Structure formats: structure tokens, C-alpha cells
Description:
The protein has 101 residues and is of the alpha+beta class. The protein has helices at residues 63-80, 83-100, and strands at 11-14, 17-21, 26-29, 34-36, 44-47. It has two domains: 3-47; 63-100. The protein contains two helices and five strands, in the order βββββαα. The chain is rod-shaped and about 70 Å long.
Amino acid sequence: MKLQDIPVGARFEYQGRVFVKTGPITATAEDGSQRIIPRYADLRPIDPPPGEADRRPRRRLDETKVLNAFDAFYRTCLRTADDFSRTELEVARQRFLAELK
């Protein structure tokens, strides 16, 4: 990971030492010393800053809606599948439903 990809305040490892990014090209080591980090340096992030882990909103799915939608899809598949495929389709349906439990 490059320095520009790391947010200010995030910890990362560079050349065996742990730093905290303090500016666009600067970082502070654990001992308090400051250093300019080259833009080309390969860095290893240590941990995401609080609140940075996942900013995407969580979407909750209604179980009944999911099952109803799947059943409608399954019925369509049954109508269009030949006799040889129906057994395999039923096995796949059972596996899908088992994964939801």
C-alpha cells in the first residue's frame, strides 16, 4: 500500500518500524521521531482507524421476501427444466435452503 492510500492518523509499518501518518508525506514513529516517507514506499497497514473499517450501510434483508423470491425463481426453473434436470435442481434448492439455516 502507498502512503497516499493511508488516511492521516492510521498506523502502518515501514522498514520494520511502526508509524502514524501525520501529513501527506510525514509520519511519526512510536518513539516520537518524525520522518518523511517516500511516496514510492511500500507500507503495511497495521489496523484501520476507528470508524474506517466499513462505512457502507448495512442492508437487512427480510427473510420472508427472500424465500418468496427464491420460490418464485424455483417454480420458473421447474417449468423450463427437462425431466433429467429437475432432480439436480431440487438438490440445489435443498442446499440453498440448508445454507440459510
